[in-house]
UniProtKB/TrEMBL annotation:
Keywords: Electron transport, Membrane, Signal, Transmembrane, Transmembrane helix, Transport. Pfam families: Cytochrom_B561, DOMON. PROSITE patterns: CYTOCHROME_B561, DOMON. One of its GO terms (cellular component) is membrane. This is Cytochrome b561 and DOMON domain-containing protein At3g61750. PANTHER family: CYTOCHROME B561 AND DOMON DOMAIN-CONTAINING PROTEIN, OS01G0680900 PROTEIN. It comes from Herrania umbratica. Residues 225-415 form the Cytochrome b561 domain.
Amino acid sequence: MATPRFWVSFSRILVGLYLLCIFLGPKVFAAADFKDILVEPDNDDPDKDAQFKVLNHDTNDPPANGSVSTAGDGDGGRYELCGTDLSFLGPPYGNISASNMVCSPIWHTFVLRYYQRADNVMTIILSAVYTTGWVGIGFSRNGMMLGSSAMVGWINRKGQARIKQYYLRGAHASQVIPDKGELPLNNIPPVVALHGAMIYLAFQAKFEHRLGRQPLILAFGSRHPTHLRLTKHDDKTAVWFDFSQASVLDIDVSQRKNHGILGIMGWGLILPAGAMIARYLKQKDPLWYYLHAGIQFLGFILGLAAVLLGIQLYRSMNADIPAHRGIGIFVLVLSILQIMAFFLRPNKDSKYRRYWNWYHHWFGRMTLFFGALNVILGIQLAGAGDDWKIGYGFLLAITLIAVILLEAFSCMRRRDKSGLPPTFQMNPI
């Protein structure tokens, strides 16, 4: 059987590893980024996709291998693209008067043209510099890819034009569904065409009301889809586009990343570490108390910063995530009650101390539980990549293992103390 000295050394090593996670955690999660949820291609499979209307392009040269160009254009070049004659698209896309069509450069070489009729039917034409691969535009409720519907167009290896609507239902390949989505397309067939160096995606949709401020997802990949499965994007962005004013407002992806990092560090790392110190290091009185109070206050500050940044993101993105937002506010309220407990702590000999202990311990456990739950929910809703899932999963595993081992060691220590003979023993008469 392991001696108490062994358990003391082992627990010190475990605590050291946990503290190492505290210092390395920001670097690990800062290196992680939100990943796309699209799958890698199967190059051995032939195309098995439906063909829409095929239009010839103006150049005699076939598309060369490469990708969509991401070089920025000057204002002169962009306005020159807005003046392109679209008659090659054919009716109804090519016969809309240029005076009625709104044209706006939106991202890199992506140019968005649209026309809203009085009956809320909108004609949308997206163009971008193209060599090979696919180009897509998605309509999102909250600026995130999950739950968005996208129109994606490409020219396959046989030179045939393809355009499909995709619904991004989840983070797995089987949940990226072609020919599904929430875009209310009408009976006019969508069109994809090459014209010079540009690819054009044109489609019509009838919305319930006139579009105003709308989150859009823009992306492209340099490899062809196979079996209608999109290859991983080369680049993507999310923007707010105001269709009423033809203005673009970038969605700051770094704010979402910082929101996630602060939440993981506060609710998922610092606060659990402070709770473990209070439970398993009480023999180091009063050191445990000052460590516990200081670490918990630091965790509270990080958690508060995560909530404030989340509120800012909600106001800027109008994100429809009531569960994540509600749990975050609930955890913040619990944390504030814990901070109040620090100032309302009665003396050890007070008759109210027992009730204070009950309140402080159980509210603390609720805070940690719902904090971890909200971190998992946020990672899922954001469509975060495997780096985030593996990183937080590793952190949770380390925390649970540390709690189990330290709890076992604490039980052994209490049992050893209860088995010791009293320091003074009277002989019976």
